[in-house]
Amino acid sequence: MIRASRLAASLAVALAAGMTGPVFAAEKVTNIVLVHGAWVNGSGWKPVYDLLVKQGYRVSVAEHPLTSFQDDVTAVKRIVDMQDGPTILVGHSYGGAIITEVGNDPKVVGLVYIAAHALDQGETEVGNGKRFPSLTSQTSDIKKTADGFLYLDPAKYPADFAADLPISQSRFEANAQGLTAASVFAAPAGAPAWKSKPSWYAVATADRIINPDLERMYAKRANSHTIEVQGASHSVYQSHPQEVSKLIEEAATHALP
Length: 257
What we know:
By secondary structure, this protein is α/β, with parallel strands linked by helices. It has a single domain (29-254), classed as Alpha/Beta hydrolase fold, catalytic domain (Rossmann fold). Helices cover 37% and strands 17% of the residues. The chain contains 10 helices and 9 strands. It has helices at residues 2-17, 46-54, 69-81, 95-102, 125-131, 157-161, 167-174, 212-221, 236-239, 241-254, and strands spanning 31-35, 58-62, 87-92, 108-114, 142-144, 149-152, 180-181, 199-204, 225-229.
């Protein structure tokens, strides 16, 4: 009865205001979409996925091709379209740039950035990386294929990307990494969803891929609810799944008024 009353009230307010698009009741969000970054794939989300599913959330992991920014946005938008109601969109690393764009979808009610890029309109990851250089960006660890795809030197991947994971796991991921079109890092951002929707941010304090100070700048600028995971590498979503899943649950609980 309470849920029905809230929905009726929401509909009445929306109709009075002339709003269009989905109208959601004020309650906990149960749909969560997880978006991976560059040089990985969606399987890295499994520890977080398992914790969220155990808590009763409906979790989808977007597998995007890393072939161009538009291709990746289209692939993630396709997963959002499949959701049956309000959705929390979570992005790691380059995945943050994707959710900043896809987050403008009316189904998305909250954004969660996990050591991720939260670009403003016209910004690029390359440009912001020059303002806040990372430890990896200052080395030759990033390699490029003849057809314009970037990857991390597999010998350096464990230290650069996943220093707090078991060495056997990080070595496997180094050799299973998703090669990523160099163009995605220079793609200018459109209108950012974080300017109109609530956001949450996890800073990885020992990140070598994205400067932690850049992460802090993103979080502060977006007025995100922020946590700092001490000693965490760029693979914070795998090495600290409890902290990451808790932050996502916080977003799911508080994104709607």
